[in-house]
Amino acid sequence: MRTKKVIISILAILLATSCETPYRMVTTLKPNGKVHREVYDFERGEGFKHKTTADQFLFHITPDWKIYQFDTVVTYNFFGEKLEYRMKISKEANSIEQFSREIQYDEEYRSFAKPEELLVKKFRWFYTYYSFKAVYKKMKYEAPVPIGNYLNEEEQKLWTQGNNSNYKVMNGFEMYNHLNEINKNFMEWVSRNYFEISFEAIKKRTTGYNLDTVKENLYENINKDGDIKPKTVCSVLDSLYKTIYFSELYKTNKEALDKEFETETAVLNLVGTTIRYELVIPDRLIKTDAPIINSDTLIWKVDGMRLLFDDYTLTAEYRTPNTWTFVISGLIVLTAIACLILRRMRKCC
Q1: pLDDT in tens, 152-206
Q2: How far apart are CA 227 and CA 126, in angstroms?
Q3: 283 in helix, strand or coil?
Q4: Which residue, among 11, 3, 1, has the nearest Cα to 305 in the 3D structure?
Q5: Could you tell me if 314 and 300 are in contact, meaning their C-beta atoms sit under 8 angstroms apart?
Q6: pTM for this structure?
Q7: Within a domain: residue 138?
Q8: What's the domain range around 25?
Q9: Residue 2 covered by a domain
């Protein structure tokens, strides 16, 4: 049976844990085409134990990465939250594509550890134009009930990545009502998948009862504001059938049921993973979809919520001057002027 992994949690939990595993990644693009990258691992909260090794990063640290330990803890503003770090790793590469090719990671972290990064260069006489693109791929999971049953693609984009381009004509009241409706449908998707996973785990261990006949009635009787786990479903089944069979079934199979549920919802642990992706460009910015621009630094927030239903793409375009072309052009102009002057002088003579 194919494992169905699904991100299941109430929205409040998703928001509360959005910085559960925070990282800061600074990518500096240099004029000569080389790239320097630094990655910082944060800790938060009082009384935490500082990590002193490199095994907590999203990818494997190979010997070409340099590890730096700071003597004192550094405080940093991470999207409005004060976090602390005292360690970073860094690496120099000949191109940004080199990071994508050489990075080593565990498969569960693929969406965060291995963005598809590309920098395309186009020469124009006075300037060289650069197009940067990084694609963080959608997290891999299979929901028993697809999100498309509850939200269309436009609503999914708005809810997880903040694309509100089609909602500019709405006032606050209209936007509130629209988002409230999306939230209701999203929560229904969450609840239904929790239920489906728990129900199927119980059903295959049940004898003497045809659970399919009460499935929808069962779902309607479950408190959808809580975690619809196997124990909860068994309790409601007991109420429907006026028995203790399902409670006993849960006690007998508790370890197996809980483990199966945790396995099939394991990807939930990555929802709180958050990366502050900072791109430092060497010259004039032309355009970007970065929500934050701080001088020469473009900043995106990449997290599990944004990768829930689709890929998340970061883009930027900038240009650098070709100094030598200005010099050559200047010399050509000066030479042309000198030739014209000499020609006139000869005519005068």
Answers
A1: 999 999 999 987 777 778 888 988 898 999 999 998 998 899 999 999 999 999 9
A2: 61
A3: coil
A4: 11
A5: yes
A6: 0.83
A7: yes
A8: 11-142+268-325
A9: no
